[in-house]
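Deliverable D5.2: sample structural annotation.
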Amino acid sequence: MANPTVLTGTPPTPDRERGSDFAELSRRITAEGLLRRRPLYYTLRFGALALALAGGVTAFLVLGDSWSQLLVAAALSVVFGQLALAAHDLAHRQVFSRRRPSEAGGLLVADVLLGMSYGWWMNKHTRHHANPNHEQKDPDVAPDLLVWSRRQASRAQGVARFVGKHQAALFLPMLMLEGLNLSFSSFRALRGPSVKRPVLEGTLLVAHFAVYFGGLFTVLSPGKALAFLAVHQGLFGIYLGSVFAPNHKGMPMIEEGTRLDFLRRQVLTSRNVRGGVFVDVFMGGLNHQIEHHLFPSMPTPALGRAQVITERYCAELGVPYCRTGLFASYGTALRHLRNVGEPLREAR
């Protein structure tokens, strides 16, 4: 698919009224039973995650004050990445259909185990799903230290202006801070309207970091504790970035005033990643990003079958459908970062 930097409005097919293209796809997906809950799958997946976390904590306690703990830190970064993917599925009600168990599970996994506010992230991610890659409405492409379009680059000031010039090269090092950034943003959000239970979430976040830092500096010497922290949080951030960056980065941006129906807004701004079972597990099903955006509550194991149906349907409509390899998607995302930062490098 040739990806322009900015999307313009794309009309629906002539024989269907606006909005009905998705209704037909939804009918086909529902007929296949792909929106049914999968309790056995999630029981096994969450059980495996619990065992992995318990194993990591046990290894940490058994090894004691040893540099071998850096291997434990690396292993736990993967476990934390998988926990983040589990929190994501809970937030979208892929696990439970009802709000209360989904929220309880989300608070446990996100706040208690990861040190990230479930309420803040839920609010942010919901806005992303409603308007993916929209320059004004998607918080995931809001200009901060990084810029995601040439329009944003032209307005960058201060540190963001310097970072924007070199953001393709700085992207990976910056990802190493992403885990800590999520925790910092969570505490900062406790004062804002996005967190509906600030006292509860604040208490859970403080409890998480009391146990996390208390464990590190009780079991390990200060130098080893800081090294563990750097390896664990750095690799955790890289894992998160490697899962989420391929999904939308480098896909077209949407400017204010552009009108697209729901199906096209989700399909044209999203990218799927090929790779089989390994990539499915590594990315927690988010390699089927197009189908996830069209049907956010669809359980992870149903996304593969939904992908086949959706790709065929998009071909019927003549809607471009982007699907590429994992490393190719990273290359596209980095080229996009370099391309949109070009005006900053050319400016005197």
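Annotation notes: The longest strand covers residues 6-7. The CA atoms of residues 243 and 283 lie 5 Å apart.
The annotation will be released with the project's public dataset once the embargo ends.
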